[in-house]
Write a structure and sequence with these properties.
Blueprint: E1 3-9, E2 15-16, E3 32-38, H1 39-43, H2 72-77, E4 87-92, H3 98-111, E5 116-120, H4 125-134, E6 142-146, H5 150-160, E7 164-168, H6 185-202, E8 206-211, E9 230-235, E10 242-250, E11 258-264, E12 267-270, H7 274-279, E13 289-296, E14 299-311, E15 320-323, H8 327-341, E16 348-354, H9 366-378, E17 386-388, E18 391-392, E19 398-399, H10 404-413, E20 418-422, H11 423-429, E21 438-442, H12 445-452
Helix pairs in contact: 9-12
Bound molecules: thymidine-5'-diphosphate (TYD) and magnesium ion.
């Protein structure tokens, strides 16, 4: 066994035989750390059964069996449950609630009599016990293990043979095979690799928690994205109680699926109706606020779009600020409003916000932006029962968007009876729209503004 020292960029994993101040591959400064690599250890490959080529037509596709764990909303994010043998990376900032989420999932799964192994390399059993009491963990074969050595964790898992394995966290577990300290890129990779192999070998789903930094890079875990099967991101603002669980990658299901949770004194509660949740603080009868029906993942969602137009102090360079909305799309919509409806934004600062901290990048939100901006300019609130969706084109046309009917249904179910939408979508939905819905199909931004004001 020959051990050799290499320098590895902790940001992107680039390797160098000597220390470098700046990574030539990702441009990060001061990111190289010396790590000792055991060449033979890295080369050892587990004996998977050798594969044979098969003719395409002979492959019998069977749907992946899925195990339902935790809340239904959580399963929906995974695409209808977790696939046995898959490795799920759950990333999020410290304190956001990753351990809480995983302990709840473990609690619910163990409550059905299944053996769960929850390994914590961060907290003592006492600490986990305290959290578990808040989450009212009951009887059931939920096994806790406070351990940092990867090899011992795998050995315990082999002995217990759980039906679900949770490892908290990838940055604090370390493999004795490598000399580098926990949290370095090579350690993090080794941990993920071995857990991955355990999951595949025993056909159990495994959840691996990873901390991410404020900049959003899964420091270390970024380099794991290609190893694991599923990458979930748990996000939220510390000063808001809601947490959004998103999918960044899923080998077995749709990405951009999403679930919303609320952090309460008794743990995370899934929010069955995110639209109502995100709209609940919407000011009534205020100008500059519009409701847009967007699609997040596979579900329709109503979001409030707010606009504020105020005369600028810097006429040469007015502000164009967007929060949660695509800045370039917003600028384009403004340009269309100037050109087609004769508004002048030259001397105005403009702020656009998708309320509630959601990211709304869909072009279908354009019409909501139009309404919010025009409502603010005219200082006239929109009708309280109005929701809108539609893409704005450069000639001021309102273009149809996909999944119109689910959007209309979501709007009507939340009391937004009047839906402003692209003409083509209106014709397509007319027959199946829920009773009582008033569909206002429009072809241009001019028609849209006229129809509303
Ligand atoms: P935690 O799961 O420890 O976060 P992470 O593992 O992502 O670092 O959650 C930490 C926060 O959640 C902490 O500030 C306390 C809060 N919390 C509640 O509000 N209610 C609860 O029932 C629990 C268990 C935690
Ligand atoms: Mg934690």
């Amino acid at each position: 066994m020959k051990a050799k020292a290499v320098f590895i960029c902790q940001n992107c994993g680039a390797r160098s035989p000597k220390w470098l101040g700046r990574c030539p591959s990702c441009g990060e400064w001061n990111s190289f750390v010396e790590e000792v690599e055991d060449e033979t250890a890295a080369a050892v490959e587990e004996a998977f059964p050798p594969a044979e080529p098969i003719v395409f037509a002979d492959i019998e596709a069977s749907p992946e069996p899925r195990v339902r764990v935790g809340a239904e909303e959580f399963n929906a994010v995974l695409g209808g449950g977790v696939v046995p043998g898959s490795l799920v990376l759950l990333g999020g900032e410290p304190g956001i609630g990753k351990s809480t989420l995983c302990l709840q999932v473990s609690r619910d799964f163990a409550a059905s009599g299944e053996i769960v192994l929850y390994v914590s390399a961060e907290e003592s059993l006492d600490q986990i016990k305290l959290r578990g009491d808040r989450l009212s963990v009951g009887a059931g074969p939920l096994h806790l293990l406070a351990e940092t050595s990867l090899e011992r964790i795998i050995a315990q898992a082999e002995k217990l043979r759980p039906r679900v394995l949770v490892v908290d966290s990838v940055q604090t577990v370390y493999s004795g095979k490598l000399a580098s300290s926990p949290g370095t890129i090579s350690q993090v990779r080794e941990v993920a690799n071995q857990i991955f192999r355990f999951a595949k070998r025993r056909n159990v789903p495994a959840f691996l928690i990873g901390h991410i930094t404020k900049e959003g890079s899964l420091a270390g875990p970024k380099s794991l994205e290609h190893i694991v099967d599923v990458v979930l991101l748990f996000e939220g603002e510390r000063d808001h109680n809601h947490r959004v669980l998103r999918v960044l990658k899923n080998r077995f299901g749709p990405v951009s699926e999403l679930a919303v949770f609320e952090m309460t004194a008794g743990g995370l509660e899934a929010i069955a109706n995110p639209s109502a949740f995100f709209l609940k603080e919407r000011p009534a009868g205020e100008a500059g606020s519009a409701v847009a029906a967007v699609i997040k993942g596979t579900r329709p969602l109503l979001v409030e779009i707010q606009a504020l137009v105020s005369s600028t102090l810097f006429a040469a360079n007015p502000r164009r600020m967007t929060v949660g909305l695509d800045r370039y799309r917003a600028s384009m919509v403004l340009a269309v409003l100037e050109k087609k409806l004769g508004y002048v934004f030259a001397g105005e600062d403009l702020y656009l916000n998708a309320a509630g901290g959601l990211e709304v990048e869909e072009p279908a939100a354009d019409l909501g932006v139009v309404l919010a901006v025009v409502s603010c300019l005219k200082n006239r609130p929109l009708p309280p029962d109005l929701a809108a969706f539609g893409e704005v084109g450069l000639s001021g046309e309102i273009r149809s968007v996909g999944q119109a009917l689910p959007r209309v249904k979501e709007a009507v179910s939340l009391g937004f009876q009047t839906v402003l939408l692209p003409r083509a979508n209106a014709l397509g939905c007319e027959r199946d729209a829920p009773a009582g819905a008033r569909l206002a199909g429009v072809r241009t931004v001019g028609e849209a503004v006229e129809a509303v004001f």
